Every structure is written in C-alpha cells, then in structure tokens.
Amino acid sequence: MHISILIVSTFNFKPIVYRYIQGFKQGFDEQLLNRVQVFFMQSDGGLAHIDQFSGSKAILSGPAGGVVGYSITSIEYQRDHRRVKNP
Q1: Does residue 40 contact residue 47 with C-beta atoms inside 8 Å?
Q2: Buried b / exposed e across 10-28, counting CB within 10 Å, b at 16+?
Q3: How many percent of the chain have pLDDT more than 90?
Q4: Residues 45-59, buried b or exposed e (16+ Cβ, 10 A)?
Q5: Cβ atoms of 50 and 25 closer than 8 Å
Q6: How many whole angstroms separate alpha carbon 72 and alpha carbon 87?
C-alpha cells in the first residue's frame, strides 16, 4: 500500500474504528475480555489483536471484503427469492 494512502486512511478511519471497538468491548464483561484474546480480521485476511486494529487495516478489501461481500450477497439473495406458498 502506498504510504500516502496508508496515512490518509489511518487518519480518516481511526476515530471510527476506535468508537466501534469501544462499543464492541462494552458488550462484554470486562473480566471476560481480560481472559480471552479478541482478534479482528484485517483487510488482507490476517488477524489483528483488538488493541492493535487500526483504520488502514479495517478497509474491507481483499479476502475480508470478499467474505463480507459474499455474505451480504447471500442474505440479499435469500431475502429477494423467498416465496410464500399459498395453501
């Protein structure tokens, strides 16, 4: 990734990712978060520890984007093709 793209994406996404992670953490018991390791999928398909996940790693491209795109497409397909049978 070109350094200027990395800097701009990190700067722009950092506050958004930070708020998301804080909200995510609030959904769990603090003692649980201290006992287990939590990872997020990065845009390259790798994993980043919750405390090391950053804006540039959150952009959904590559393998992570493919997984999300596939799941959204599957859900939309199922919703659009659901048929109600008449008795």
Answers
A1: yes
A2: beebeeebeeebeeeeeee
A3: 0
A4: eeebeeeebbbbbbb
A5: yes
A6: 31
> Which tokens hold the place of 32?
């649980």
DSSP per residue, 1-62: --HHHHHHHHHHHHHHHHHHHHHHHHTS-HHHHHHS--EEE-TTS-EEETTT--GGG-S--H
**In the predicted model, is pLDDT for residue 1 greater than 70?**
no
pTM above 0.70, yes or no: no
- Region 56-67 average pLDDT: 68
| Length of the chain as a residue count | 87
Domain residue ranges of the chain, discontinuous segments joined by +: 3-80
Q: Across the chain, how many H-helices and E-strands are there? A: 3, 2
Identify the three-state secondary structure at position 66.
Answer: helix
